[in-house]
Amino acid sequence: MTFAIIAAGEGSRLSQEGVALPKPLVSLNGTAMIDRLIKIFTLCEADKVVIIINDLHKVTQEHLLKLQAQSQVPVEIIVKTTPSSMHSFFELSKLIQDDKFCLTTVDTIFREEEFKVFIEEFKSSDCDGYMAVTDFIDDEKPLYISTDKELNITGFHDTATPDCRFISGGIYCLTQPAINTLNKCMEKGISRMRNFQRELVADGLRLKAYPFSKILDVDHADDITKAEKFLSGNE
Description:
alpha/beta
C-alpha cells in the first residue's frame, strides 16, 4: 500500500508569525512533521511513501534526500510548486499504482494508534474510500460531512446540515476509482480538495466516514504548542 504526503504549501502563515523553518520541517516534540509521518507509515507496513514538496525551500529537499537514503521503505519525491492541494494530489497520483492508498497533508496531526486501526480496517474493506473524520472543530474553514446511520458519506458541505456529525480530518484512504474522478476534475478545471470529494460522491463511490477522537492542523504558530500537548497526552 502506498502512502502519499502533500507538503507543497508555502506555509506563509507560519513564516509570518515568526516560524523560520518550512512547515514539513517544523518540529513536534523533537521530530519534524514529515519525519513523523514517514515513521508512522513505515510502522503501518507501507510499500512506499510518495511526497510532493514545493521548489521554494531547498532545505526541505535536502532534508528529504538524506531521509530518502536512510528510510526503511522506498521514498519518492516530487519537487513542484502547485496552485492547490488537489493539484498536488494529481502530481502524486502519477506515482500511485496500488489499488489502495492513503493520502494526507504534512500538517495533519492525529493519534498514531487510531491511525493504525484506521489503516487496517480500510485494508480489509470493500469500500471505495475511508475518510478520517472528527467532531472536534478547530478549523478556520471546516468541511462538514453528512452521513447515514451506518456512517456512509452522503455529502460534503461548507456549512453544517442536520445530518452533519463530523468534519473532514484531511486523511483520505482511497482506491483507484478515485484517481479516475481526480483526472476528470482536472479535465473540467475543478480545483480544491473539497470539490474533488464532492465529485467522488457524484460519481457514486462508496465512501465511509471513520471517526477519530481528534485531528489537528498546524496552520499557525500557536498550533505547534497545541499539537505537542495533544501528542504527549496533555490535552
